[in-house]
Amino acid sequence: MQLTLPSNKNIKHYFxxxxxxxxxxxMSFIGMNWFVLEKTGLNSAVGFLMAIGIMSGLIIIPFxxxxxxxFNRKQILIYSNFVRAFLILLMxxxxxxxxxxxxxxYFLAIVNGVGWNLYLPASRALVQEIVSTExxxxxxxxxxxxxxxxxxxxxxxxxxxxxxxxxxxxxIVDAATFLVSNFFLFHINYNSVLKRVEKEEFMRxxxxxxxxxxxxxxxFIFGVIIFLPFVVTxxxxxxLPGYVTHHLQAGSLTxxxxxxxxxxxxxxxxxxxxxxxxxxxxxxxxxxxxxxSILALSIMTVNKYFIIPYVATLFFGLPNSAIxxxxxxxxxxxxxxxxxGRVLSIWNFIATFLQVILTFSVGLVMDKVGSLSGYxxxxxxxxxxxxxxxxxxxxxxxxLAACEPNDESILLSQTE
Length: 416
Description:
The protein is mainly α. Helix 8 (217-247) packs antiparallel against helix 11. The protein starts with 8 loop residues before the first helix and ends in a 14-residue tail after the last helix. It has helices at 9-40, 43-70, 73-97, 102-130, 136-164, 167-185, 202-214, 217-247, 252-279, 282-302, 308-334, 340-369, 373-402.
């Protein structure tokens, strides 16, 4: 295996599309969190804002996976980008022409929540289609790089633009990035696997997707574990504004650059994972990355020195993203392409439900106990995820070793 990027032109078009849209979304996400904290002064208000976005996602998630497995995945991304851009620009007009109303921001959170949860299963299922099985790790590494480069550049840009131009400018840029992203999506050319499988009725396909994982509990549980580091990352964004304001006693620029440090670390994870996977086993790497993530978060709870938060945030972003890259690639290898959207959607539903509870809870805890308690909260979740991974990976290995090559219960084939 050589350390080279996938040669497929489609994944390169996807890469540019993803990095541009993630830049806009990242700016909007960071800007809205800071805007709400500035207007209300409450960490719980930031947590509530995120909880609204997450809960709105819960409404669409049960159907998002089936939509991704029923309709053309490329077209789903294109249409959702157009709709999100239109609604964001509508909110910009309201913010510019009317007095501040928190419900405008809540509406944007709903738009982002629904849009993201439609995007996730469709985009990941699309990647599984356009990347060969042998290059899945490279493809997922490239996706993580695009996600995080977009996000960490957004962190710095959001801090600067918010300080000098305000939230409205951030939202205008966000809407524009969705339109530019579609330009690259239009250039993706492939034969969808959905055209090669028997068409099922939409509701039957929805039911079959749930039955698919119910019959395979070890895969189901393992998938939930994969999403826990992502839950921690989302909750991290609730913790960070209060941590910057009350513990570091700094402003939006520090907030933006700390968020950028996470993105730099996560981007390095894409390159590091491709390189290290050549030399070391995936299981060994996941264990090392879990330990690194827990240590980085622990340092944030005990240290206040100026440079330490930046370094610790960077070293939290690297292992947390690397874990997702490795485990997502593994699941893409064993789950049939025609089921990927529904399977991802089910796991995303559970992860989103956890986010609703944790993001709002951590905001309340920080208001009552102090800003550092948020990082203690995150350390606890990562420890639970690590212990769960150690236990269930052993069980999964035993089942994989015991099954026949075409045993459906472990999903080793690409067909039912």
